[in-house]
Amino acid sequence: MLEIDPKQQLFPEIITMMDGQPMPDAEVIVYQKFFNALESDQLFQELLNGINWQQDKVKFNEQEIGIPRLTAWYGDEGKSYSYSGMVKHPSTWNPTLLRIRSRVEKVEKVNFNSVLLNLYRSGKDRVSWHSDDEAELGKNPIIASVSFGETRRFQFRHRINKTLDRITVNLTHGSLLIMKGSTQHFWQHQIPEAAKSLKERINLTFRIII
Ligand SMILES: O=C(O)CCC(=O)C(=O)O
Ligand SMILES: [Fe+2]
Known about the structure:
By secondary structure, this protein is mainly beta. The protein contains three helices and 16 strands. Strands 3-14-11-16-9-6 form a six-stranded antiparallel β-sheet. It has a four-stranded antiparallel β-sheet with strand order 10-15-12-13. The chain has a two-stranded antiparallel sheet with strand order 1-2. The longest helix has 14 residues. The protein is globular. The structure holds 2-oxoglutaric acid (AKG) and fe (ii) ion (FE2). 2-oxoglutaric acid (AKG) binds next to strand 9, strand 11, strand 15 and strand 16. Its cofactor is Fe(2+).
């Protein structure tokens, strides 16, 4: 007869609750105040001034249009990343990024080898619906997302089950959001446009490029 270890869960079902609703097919964790206020203020300033922010452009109807945010890409040498038809070559890690990364790796015991940074200059800057499901991230990517500055609404929608409501999470100064497991297969996310008067927000998504 087949021996079954009672401690082994045969059909692990991870139920994620977000915004008071169950989030099937996802593994998402949010830690508000992962970095305390003082530390967050300091890290925000260091990133604002010390990152090599770029205005990326996309071709649209034969016209080049700036995407609605500034970005930067840092990581281990050779870990290039293609996204929205662009190939990004990483800049070399700096001490601020290494400090943030090592804190994140204390809760998620993996080695992140790259980070994509976004600077939302006002509430008008945004990122539209997408999944982080590029081939170089592997089958079930783990993404650790750290936010500083203005609070913005981060929304999820299920890609297949349209009966599920949208889920909204406020990502505050010093928060950490983890997405892993099948999250990117089944869910898309966005930062919707908000009031122009909103101040700057910086987001870092640590990733593992295979
Ligand atoms: O700014 C955020 O919180 C999300 C950014 C994002 O989804 C991405 O860069 O892939
Ligand atoms: Fe994303």
